[in-house]
Amino acid sequence: MALLKSAMIFFLGMAALQVSIATVYKVGDSAGWTLIGNVDYKKWAASKNFHVGDTIIFKYNTQYHNVKQVSHADYKSCNGSNPLATYTTGSDSIIVKKPGHHFFLCDFPHHCQAGMKGVIRVPRASSVAPSPGPSHNHNY
Ligand SMILES: *[C@@H]1O[C@H](CO)[C@@H](O)[C@H](O)[C@H]1NC(C)=O
Ligand SMILES: [Cu+2]
Q1: What is this structure's pTM?
Q2: Ligand 2 mean position to 111 CA, how many Å?
Q3: What is the dihedral of CA 127, 131, 137, 140, to 10 degrees?
Q4: Per-domain residue ranges for the chain?
Q5: Does the keyword Signal apply (predicted)?
Q6: Cα(76)–Cα(97) distance, integer angstroms
Q7: Which atom of ligand 1 is nearest to the CA of 77?
Q8: In CATH, which of 2.60.40.420, 1.20.1640.10, 3.90.420.10, 3.40.50.300 is domain 21-122?
């Protein structure tokens, strides 16, 4: 009985830990998703340690901007005509569901070229990927 109880506490503790690890990120911080102020979204995204379960929020004026998730090729060429997902509410909460690279851009004319694009890089869980070396690599 005591063992069952401590097992319960352990699992509840793990669940609480999972919740506390999930982070909410507002894209561009106080600036939001915009052309104003020349926010470097690539740099912004590269400075974060995203994980599965995190929430990415895009805040913007819907008259001028939107959010499209695209393929790597379309990201490179700033082509939003074949989106994997489209967001247009002006306050889009996107929950990171899987590891990998997630490419986003604004599909209004020339906005992507002007810098409204970024990559959310989500590393695979460290327990899944065995590390070959003695030190941890953080090349994200
Ligand atoms: C965007 O991609 C579509 C489909 O792949 C293609 O037809 C279109 O020409 C592309 N647009 C630009 C501006 O490259
Ligand atoms: Cu835009």
Answers
A1: 0.77
A2: 5
A3: -60
A4: 21-122
A5: yes
A6: 23
A7: 14
A8: 2.60.40.420
